[in-house]
Design goal:
Blueprint: H1 11-46
Length: about 50
């Protein structure tokens, strides 16, 4: 097993990787919020 602290990555490469990872997270978060709003509206219409 390797020590993760021994892995070296440049700040520029890390920035690229973090930005790449943030895109799908942001997309999913947006979709989940929109779905939550729709479900809330439907529940209110049903009087639940």
């Amino acid at each position: 097993m390797t020590d993760p602290q021994e892995d070296k990555i440049s700040v520029d490469d890390l920035t690229v990787k973090v930005k790449r990872a943030a895109r799908p997270i942001t997309f999913c978060n947006t979709m989940l919020r929109a779905t939550e709003e729709e479900v809330t509206k439907i529940v209110k219409k049903l009087g639940l």
